Amino acid sequence: MKEYFDGNTSALLLLGCPKLPVQTSVALYLSKKLRDKDIDVMIAGTDAAINLLKVADPDGHYIDNCINLDRCIEDVAEKRVSFDLTFVFVHNDANISYAATVNKLMNTKLFLIIFGENTKELVQSVDFECDKIIAATTHNPVPLKNKIDRLME
Amino acid sequence: MSCIEKMDHEILLANSSFKEAKEFIKKNFKEVYYVDPGYKLFDIYMIGISDIPIAVDEDYLVFPYTKPCHGTFVLKIKGDEELSKLKSK
Q1: H helices, E strands: number in chain B
Q2: Is the ipTM here above 0.85?
Q3: Domain layout of chain A by residue ranges
Q4: CB A71 within 8 A of CB B49
Q5: Does B68 touch chain A (CB under 8 A)?
Q6: pLDDT of A93-151, one tens digit each?
Q7: B79–chain A Cβ distance below 8 A for any pair
Q8: Do the beta carbons of residue A102 and residue A130 sit within 8 Å?
Q9: Which fold has domain A2-152?
Q10: Are A22 and A119 a contacting pair, CB within 8 Å?
Q11: Which member of A17, A26, A102, A119 has the greatest number of CB atoms within 10 A?
């Protein structure tokens, strides 16, 4: 997996509903790890999900560019933007649909970060090509952090 | 809020999975067209797993509408010019 982080220059982090606390923490952490590898990071999410990031990182130490989720889908569908890597945060069925959509619209290396209480069911519903980072956690970000570390190092 | 939510609409199914919404449309409507994710309908770009169903019911369109926090809804909205666009696809 390490090779994916050594030649690519852009990444999209597509956030799901911010209901589960681990999402914001892991998104900040992953954004920082990608930036450390000179990868430009765009983060897409609902207004609430983006505001959680911006309030947690007001000086932009870990995040650069954020965009509303609907606007991001529009830009991707209209081929205005494309990303080498895409990470989709998944803890419900709707997030799977968003992942399938960007997978169809872009030629990108797709990773699903699957977490929450229904990881088994969510994994079973994925029928498209992607890599999965899975941890059945809702509050504690460390299991996902450790898996991201292993993926990138 | 998307413009589509401000349009006059009826919710036929709420807070479902995409698969449930797809089955609902296939089961309850005869004239069904299929589009790819990203197809533009009104002001939205459709979200879903391949072959997204859109049913035509007289002057209305019936289709799945996915929101990240609330799952997938099946909406019924007057089709207007979207009807001919869909049929000519």
Answers
A1: 3, 7
A2: yes
A3: 2-152
A4: no
A5: yes
A6: 999 999 999 999 999 999 999 999 999 999 999 999 999 999 999 999 999 999 999 99
A7: no
A8: no
A9: Rossmann fold (3.40.50)
A10: no
A11: A26
